[in-house]
Amino acid sequence: MVNDTVEITTICPDIENSQFALSSSAVDVVRLNNTATPMGSVPRALPRIKVLGTGGTIASKGSDASATAGYHVDLTIQDMLTAIPDISGICEIEYEQLCNVDSKDIDESVLFKIYKGVSESLQSFDGIVITHGTDTMSETAFFIESTIDTGEVPVVFVGSMRPSTSVSADGPMNLYQAICIAADRKSRGRGVLVSLNDQISSGYYITKTNANSLDTFNVRQGYLGNFVNNDIHYYYPPTKPLGCHKFKLKFDESLSPTTTFCFPRVCILYAHQTFPTEFIDMVADKYDGIVFATLGAGSLPDNVNQRALQLEVPIVYSKRSMDGMIPVANLPKSKEGSHNTIIASGYLNPEKSRILLQLCLASNYTIPEIRHVFSGVYGG
């Protein structure tokens, strides 16, 4: 029997691409088309994009056109913008050089500059682009996604794998694409993104997978779309990473952008055959937390597990493998059946597990609260 009172609506917020709307059996199916709602006669102003420069390979020069190693950071964000295709019909650009360093040298003081640069630009710009070295880009992107509610404003990280002086340098096109992505309305509501080698990915899950290849951010989690011939293709409607815990950082408003702030100290121990417990003893009293890059999906020698169960500091079991996850079921247990202070990282790799544990400790979370935060990425 037909229920005339039932209203059927799409759950997809992408209204522009929803072809039919069905309100009830008593109402005809109406096909939506581009002429149903005419655009306003007043042309929309171009989106305003803020570009924040931090350095990296994209801002580097090599010794000659064939050199793809041994280069050094030398270009400013202004230099890089002059090398990209014309964007005057796409957006209005403002830029700021926060720093100019190799991403291996990004520390907490530089993170603070990036954090403040993004926070202060959210209310005034329609999109934000951050040039960054690829070596630690995934860590900074994860940090920003975890500490700033970007709302609808896209924040796009971009870098390159070849210096600007190299034959077929990838930096100019990557930067051009990142600006186009940040200016596109389809990018709104997607949080922190990474644009590299024609691919659009989630900054929360992105990981560098190759030390040399242009296609270095080719990962399973967070592959959102592509940039092809000036067209931006997203595979899914706007959404942000599930389980991403937002931390509210508390800073003294009088701090200058150059002030260094310090998070609790967390180290990463990389497991291997014959991994000794002495390594744990070397760091247990010097750090506030430990992350293990375990063998497989949480495997460690029995004597290492037993020593870890004796510690009072939080310990996160992550993995050496690029893909996969650490389930709670693989964590060691004490004789009483407790995991004590050991936590499963879920899908997070060791470096992101370190950042998440630091943020938890900085917020004075208890072990059960830390476990709950990691449960968002299917750990805990």
TrEMBL record:
Catalytic activity: L-asparagine + H2O = L-aspartate + NH4(+)
Enzyme class: hydrolase
Domain L-asparaginase N-terminal: start-end pairs: 48-238
Keyword Transit peptide: no
Residue intervals of the Asparaginase/glutaminase C-terminal domain: 265-374
Source superkingdom: Eukaryota
Gene3D superfamilies in UniProt: 3.40.50.40, L-asparaginase, N-terminal domain
EC number: 3.5.1.1
UniProt protein name: asparaginase
Provenance organism: Nakaseomyces bracarensis
Annotated keywords: Hydrolase
Upper classification of the organism: Eukaryota, Fungi, Dikarya, Ascomycota, Saccharomycotina
Family according to the record: Belongs to the asparaginase 1 family.
